[in-house]
Amino acid sequence: MEVINPMSRMVRDELKGILPYVLAIDAVAYLVSFIFLGVNYEMALGLILGSILLLVNMALLGGHSEQAINLYRLTGDVSRAKRKMAMSYAIRSVILAAALFCSLKLDFLNTIGVMLPFLYPKPVYMIKTFISDKKEGK
What's this model's pTM, rounded to 2 decimal places? Predict the structure, then answer.
């Protein structure tokens, strides 16, 4: 029986590429929280959940973007591709809202820890660009 993998190689590679940066930023965030809060498992759990949901959001964004592009290539209908991306945005927003709601309601999750990873993509891609520019000698 063949296993169907809905995630493309490009999306998988992108997630693998950002994972070390996400973990490094999580470690720094936890160390900073450790200075101010001491040993705090709520923050650690929040960062873990937030990072997992960040990766889920990134996977959904990548997968749905590819599907929208393929839909446009097959049909030539821009409005269908836009609807696909709008639906993707709504799903990712619901995930973010659910994470926020859970972090506010559950005492064992730190809200800042859950929400902080959702801010990681911009610094991660800036760092990756800086590192690749350094390697290329720019």
Answer: 0.86
